[in-house]
């Protein structure tokens, strides 16, 4: 397990470096001169040259990359072209909104999806089992922003019980107010996320119900609940955990839409603004932090899977058979 | 719940859970839903209730005989916009699936056939690209090249190609590891022959199903882009931007905020059902199991 952790961590670091290269190249491939963002329309040639030098664009691309990478290593994400403020603290400021939003939505989605998915599988032949499964199918086709608009219409505009959007100026100084403004966004994200998680929980539970070990356990006299608890739970949770990791990461990155519906000053809205203003250090910073979060979540999901499933622990990369097949493919 | 016999045989119950008839029903419901949107989109080429620029209807008029869905806040006919939206949604879906499908297939096949170091490098880059959701990639491209339908399709197609490439690579490698490929290689078949004779016939059902699912995701991604104000500009507005425009006046004129969402759901559900149906048609092993 320890050697696995070391290898997996090394992999995490390598992917992160690779991601920073991909990110850097992608951003440079885009048309548009970032120096222009600093200038007004009638700028002279000297002003343009000065601006390019100011943002370091006169350097060759490789030098620019190492400059940025060196800063990254010192946990410095650079300075915004537009506001002149350091990017790092600005991102932290935004995470205060996005992280609680994502985590609360995630927890709520799991609370909804696990029992619903279980019932949908266990009662898959009954009308309510089929209904639950159909609703979850519907849920993956519904755009997040539409749910948001509908919930705002109902709870904020018609019933007037919750604010339609915005976030307190002083962040979490008044937790009640902050929670109130996050309530509708959290429910919006959780509804959409729970629909897709429900489908995976259902299919994982169906697989377990279909399994020989569950039937053997029942045949040996264990009650359904006992057999499920001792044999079913772990087996069903392995695939669900990796989906939960992906969902958590996607939600974190996809927060931009929900934040736009509810006018929340989170990481997503920072990205939207910085893209509109061609503020490269901001864009780069937000995307790098997002990638970092996605990779760390993936790392944690893998780790938890191995805690749950001893079979995965036995092999180093979790799919010994796949790598065996891979060698066969080379031959 | 614990000891009774009724809860005992889940095996039988599970095996019954989808019968052949229900599966083909899935496909047909999907075809009908997609068909409704497709016909609407085709009609828009020859006939529209009003010109999209026509603002004669008066602002936020309720539904009437003249304007079945009412008008928007500039007085434009909503039904006209919704019909144009259908066309845009299908264009986005089809365009990005073609783009993403072609690039993805080529990249995936190349990776599957490549030397180990190149394959490993490519798949690592693909993994990183997949870590960014479509929407983020699309936002970047659209922001740089300006908000238009073309850049949305380009962006969504490119993001999709990473997913298709990874799938193709895995599927192709699985086929390439089989004995009859070794036999074909020994008997002198070169890689183009292997691709055409063995790899493509084996992987296309799965790839097509995946592309159908990606179609739905592409439509949703474009709707989100438009909702964020990065989609094709009015009057040729997509459903996402109609919704965004109507959001502020939802209590006065709810249709503008509700109808685009309903249409999006109809299209995406339809495409997903078609994908599910195709999967069962294309995969004989699943058919036999039922």
From TrEMBL, chain A:
Membrane topology, record value: Multi-pass membrane protein
Classification via Gene3D superfamilies: MetI-like (1.10.3720.10)
Keywords from the UniProt entry: Cell membrane, Membrane, Transmembrane, Transmembrane helix, Transport
Domain of life: Bacteria
Localization in the cell: Cell membrane
InterPro entries assigned to the protein according to its UniProt record, in alphabetical order: BPD_transp_1_N (IPR045621), MetI-like (IPR000515), MetI-like_sf (IPR035906)
Start and end residues of each ABC transmembrane type-1 domain: 95-305
Pfam families: BPD_transp_1, BPD_transp_1_N
Family listed: Belongs to the binding-protein-dependent transport system permease family.
Name this protein carries in UniProt: Peptide ABC transporter
Source organism of this protein record: Frondihabitans sucicola
From TrEMBL, chain B:
TM annotation in the entry: 27-50, 88-110, 122-143, 149-168, 207-230, 250-278
CDD domains hit by this protein: TM_PBP2 (cd06261)
Residue span(s) of domain ABC transmembrane type-1: 86-275
Localisation: Cell membrane
Gene3D superfamilies for this protein: MetI-like
Membrane topology of the entry: Multi-pass membrane protein
Keywords: Cell membrane, Membrane, Transmembrane, Transmembrane helix, Transport
Family stated for the protein in its record: Belongs to the binding-protein-dependent transport system permease family.
Protein's UniProt name: Peptide ABC transporter permease
Organism encoding this protein: Frondihabitans sucicola
